[in-house]
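Collaborator request, handled under Task 6.
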Amino acid sequence: MKKLFLATTLLALTTTSFAATTGTLLLQGIVAQKISLSVTSQAIASTLDLSTSQTDLAVASVNEQSNSKCGYKVTISSANLSKLKRADGADVLSYTMKYNGSAVALTSAAGTTITNSSASSVNFNKGVSISYTGVAAESMVEGTYADTVTFTIAAN
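Structure tokens returned to the collaborator:
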């Protein structure tokens, strides 16, 4: 009994004499990278009057969202290299495009890349407009003239 009492007393003294006077707590959270882009077209984009010239005709808006610490880039490319092409033929009508008020070169397969090096969280709406010289209907072959423009967003 004496030995048990002595062992219990030593254990209590050992625990008490080595107890810490400070401690730490790590609080931590993770924010995942978010990069997204959405294109909202205007109704006029699919009902263009090709016989009437247009200058800076608003055809869409693009919402860019990014929280990348390295910034991001948007690449814009055209399937027909900046030409509205007749669906069942080779006839074309050239156009130019502006993105957020700045000209965009779409005449190569690579298109144009716009870099945003901001290390902050962004949520921007940017306008898309096109310009073209209209051609009288009797000077064009009938049909649907179209082009597909692709917008891609990626972290830097």
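The cover message to the collaborator said: "DSSP finds one helix and eleven strands in the chain. The mean pLDDT is 91. Please let us know whether this matches your experimental observations."
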